[in-house]
Every structure is written in structure tokens, then in C-alpha cells.
């Protein structure tokens, strides 16, 4: 399953997916962690954190985005990329694709290729067979020549006016334990036994594709317990507790990200991932706080929101409960974290998209107003706040740098999809775009 709610800042600010999160909980005397691999940080045994340390979002390096191609804005009724209008973008060999970025994107694209050919593309742009040639080539293409791979097999296509907005997400690591103990007593729940998914399409053709979640109470089907009820103990006897966290703010933000790691007292790491959700609508608490004047200038980032919640614990608890959505987890033992395609996502290469506007598994080039967001990205995930054309949520892996980038990521610029050569001509011949 995808990294649910996949935004580090915009999802919190909207009404809608690292180092220790939040590192505000690390003690000044805590031993430094040692990176074991890109998504993993393992610490020596240590006491639970006490004194907060506030770590700000990383300041971006500004950049000037490339101009979009002249095009009409997509009609308001457009529900897919095909209905939004498309024009040819610039030649790939003219784009500022770095060697490092191309290598990461090629590696990520290889992972997507099998699923990309099997999936039904909801954008209306491609068919599975369109990707076959590039997928065959990707399997043996030398990584050192990755840039030429994309130049050889792809063309750029702009959807609508091409105006892009990008946020960021990452894989958090928080302090936790497998068994309840003093200072580590915030339950992390698995899927409740009485949570029921209902496919409404089974009852009416007009409701095909729509699902709801709830529970049976007497002879009625009712909404499942919201965050307040769950935190007040209504899941007792209904859901397994797979682990415990030592801080409710930490686990709240891990739910927003949808996947993460628990740093255990013995120095081990337990990976957990999205297993389900209570069916309640997601509410971005950042927007609530901003509208109420609780966040000052420069505080509308994930770090600023977390700082306020920690400085005002009672009010913070009430604010978090206004987000009635609640995520359930399972322990992960394989490669990960996993995106919406069921495949591992790659830091600095994978992005969450709206699959109605970007084929899942396809590459895209973003030219943004900050250098770190500019480059090749591969669509391998989705997110509750990631809706519409040219909307991307970039994944940054784990670690302090990933948390800092994702927490402050808000970039605007231009997006071009990378589609197999010949696709645009076929689309134009089939349905010319004005």
C-alpha cells in the first residue's frame, strides 16, 4: 500500500505523505545514530528522550524554472490527463538532467517497468505495450549512461498549462518499543477486527469505484470510531497493538506519512507500514492552525506545526483530534518503504502523483523554483492530497536531511511527462488537441 497521506507540509496545510521524527524529541546527550543504508538509521541503546531540540527546515537554493510551452489551461471539468489537453514539450537532451539524477531515475524506472506494462493507465495517455521497448532496454542499460537512456526512448509531453506544484514526504523514524513500558505507552494499532470495507459498486452501477468503511452496530452500518474515540480506548479488544510509541505527536505525524521506523530501546529498528484507515475524512491541521492565527511567519512548515503542538500540549491534542482520520499499521519485514504500486520507493527519485494525470511508473521532469526539486522523478506512489494535473509529492528517503527537505518542500514551476516516443503522435492523430 502507498505511503498514505503523503505530504510533509502541504497535506498538513490543506483540507485534504528520516531522521528521527521529530528530532525535537532527541536529547542533547543522546548518542548520534549511524546510517546503515539510505532508509535506515540504527541507534545504540539509550534512554527515552527528555529535552526537546528544535531543528528548522532546510533552506532551499532558489532556481528559475523553465517556461512552460504555450498551451490552453485544462478545462475545469477535465478529470484525466487525456481530457486536459497536451502539447509536445522540449527535447529531452536540452533539459538540465544531472548524471546523478538520471542514475537514480533509471534504477527506480527498472522497478516500475513490470507493473507499468500490466496496469491499466487511468490517464488515457498510454497502453501497456507502449512501455515494452524502454522496459526491455532499461533492464540492461548501463547506469553510467542513464541520461542517454531517457533521451533515446522518451519524449516530453506537457499536460494542460504545465504549471506544477511539488511538496515532499519522507520515511520517519520515531522512538518506540514492542511492549508497553513507562514512557512508551502510546499504542500503535493494527487493523481492527470489526472494520468493514463496503464496495458500493456491488449495490449500484452508479456507485462503481466508490467504497466506504465502517462497522456494524446492531442492525445498522455506522461510521467507524474517529480519532478521539480511538484515543479514548474504544479499540480495546477490537484491534491488536503491534507496538508502542513514546509520544503522541510523533505517531500522529507518522500516520500522516503512512510508513516509518520505530527505533527500539535495544538499538534495533522495527519497520511499520500502512495497513488500513478508519474511513474518516482527513483534515489538515496546519490549515486549521493557520486560519486561527496560531502559526506565525515562517512556522507553516511541518517543523513549525510540530513545535506549536509541543509547546501547547493540551491545545495541541485537541487540534490533532480535529483530524478524525486514523491510520492502522502492520510490521514490514521486506524491502521498503512501499509505494502505491507495491514496490519500494527511492529517495530523491520517487514521487506521489494523481494516477488520473500521471501513469503510475512513468518518469517526469520537474523544472522548479528550487534546485533540489528540479530533475527526473518516477511516479511510484499516490497520496490523499495529491490531486490534479502537474501535482507531485517528492520522496526524500530517511534521515535528518530528508526530514528537513520534505518538511519545508513547497516548489512551483513546470512539469513535463516522459512518455515513450510516438505516443504523442498517436494521441494527436486519434483526438487532435486545439
Automatic annotation (TrEMBL):
GO molecular function: hydrolase activity, hydrolyzing O-glycosyl compounds; peptidoglycan lytic transglycosylase activity
This enzyme's EC code(s): 4.2.2.n1
Keywords: Cell wall biogenesis/degradation, Lyase
UniProt domain Lytic transglycosylase MltA: residue ranges: 173-330
Any one biological process term the GO annotation gives: peptidoglycan catabolic process
Enzymatic reactions: Exolytic cleavage of the (1->4)-beta-glycosidic linkage between N-acetylmuramic acid (MurNAc) and N-acetylglucosamine (GlcNAc) residues in peptidoglycan, from either the reducing or the non-reducing ends of the peptidoglycan chains, with concomitant formation of a 1,6-anhydrobond in the MurNAc residue
Record Pfam families: 3D, MltA
SMART domains linked to this entry: MltA
Alphabetized InterPro entries for the sequence: 3D_dom, MltA, MltA_B, RlpA-like_sf
Tagged with keyword Heme: no
One GO cellular component term noted in the UniProt record for this chain: outer membrane
Keyword RNA-binding among UniProt keywords: no
Protein's name according to its UniProt entry: peptidoglycan lytic exotransglycosylase
Organism whose genome encodes this protein: Sphingomonas gei
Amino acid at each position: 500500500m502507498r505511503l498514505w497521506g503523503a505530504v510533509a507540509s502541504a497535506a498538513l496545510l490543506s483540507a485534504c505523505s528520516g531522521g528521527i521524527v521529530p528530532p525535537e524529541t532527541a536529547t542533547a546527550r543522546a548518542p548520534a545514530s549511524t546510517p546503515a543504508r539510505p532508509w535506515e538509521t540504527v541507534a545504540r541503546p539509550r534512554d527515552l528522550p527528555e529535552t526537546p531540540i528544535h531543528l528548522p527546515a532546510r533552506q532551499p537554493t532558489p532556481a528559475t524554472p523553465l517556461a512552460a510551452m504555450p498551451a490552453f489551461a485544462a478545462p475545469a471539468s477535465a478529470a484525466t490527463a487525456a481530457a486536459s489537453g497536451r502539447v509536445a514539450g522540449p527535447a529531452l537532451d536540452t533539459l538540465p538532467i544531472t548524471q546523478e539524477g538520471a542514475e537514480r531515475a533509471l534504477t527506480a524506472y527498472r522497478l516500475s517497468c513490470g507493473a507499468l506494462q500490466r496496469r491499466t493507465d487511468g490517464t488515457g495517455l498510454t497502453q501497456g505495450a507502449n512501455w515494452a521497448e524502454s522496459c526491455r532496454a532499461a533492464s540492461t542499460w548501463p547506469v553510467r549512461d542513464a541520461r542517454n537512456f531517457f533521451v533515446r526512448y522518451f519524449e516530453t509531453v506537457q499536460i494542460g498549462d504545465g504549471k506544477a506544484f511539488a511538496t515532499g514526504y519522507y520515511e520517519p523514524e520515531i522512538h518506540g518499543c514492542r511492549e508497553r513500558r513507562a514512557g512508551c505507552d502510546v499504542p500503535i494499532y493494527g487493523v481492527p477486527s470489526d472494520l468493514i470495507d463496503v464496495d458500493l459498486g456491488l449495490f449500484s452501477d452508479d456507485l462503481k469505484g466508490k467504497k466506504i468503511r465502517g462497522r456494524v452496530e446492531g442492525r445498522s452500518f455506522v461510521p467507524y470510531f474517529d480519532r478521539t474515540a480511538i484515543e479514548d480506548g474504544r479499540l480495546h479488544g477490537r484491534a491488536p497493538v503491534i507496538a508502542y510509541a513514546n509520544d503522541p505527536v510523533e505517531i500522529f505525524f507518522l500516520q500522516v506519512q503512512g510508513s516509518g521506523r520505530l527505533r527500539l530501546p535495544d538499538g534495533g529498528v522495527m519497520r511499520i507500514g500502512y495497513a488500513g484507515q478508519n474511513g474518516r475524512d482527513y483534515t489538515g491541521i496546519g490549515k486549521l492552525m493557520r486560519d486561527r492565527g496560531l502559526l506565525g511567519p515562517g512556522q507553516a512548515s511541518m517543523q513549525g506545526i510540530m513545535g506549536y503542538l509541543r509547546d501547547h500540549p493540551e491545545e495541541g491534542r485537541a487540534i490533532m483530534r480535529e483530524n478524525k482520520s486514523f491510520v492502522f499499521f502492520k510490521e514490514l519485514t521486506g524491502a521498503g518503504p512501499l509505494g502505491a504500486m507495491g514496490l519500494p520507493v527511492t529517495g530523491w527519485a520517487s514521487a506521489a502523483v494523481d494516477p488520473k494525470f500521471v501513469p503510475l511508473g512513468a518518469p517526469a521532469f520537474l523544472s522548479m523554483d528550487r534546485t533540489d526539486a528540479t530533475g527526473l522523478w518516477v511516479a511510484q506512489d499516490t497520496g490523499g492530497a495529491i490531486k490534479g494535473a502537474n501535482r507531485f509529492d517528492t520522496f526524500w528517503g530517511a534521515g535528518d536531511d530528508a526530514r528537513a527537505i520534505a518538511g519545508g518542500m513547497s516548489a512551483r514551476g513546470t512539469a513535463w511527462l516522459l512518455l515513450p516516443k510516438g505516443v504523442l503522435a498517436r494521441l494527436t492523430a486519434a483526438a487532435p488537441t486545439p
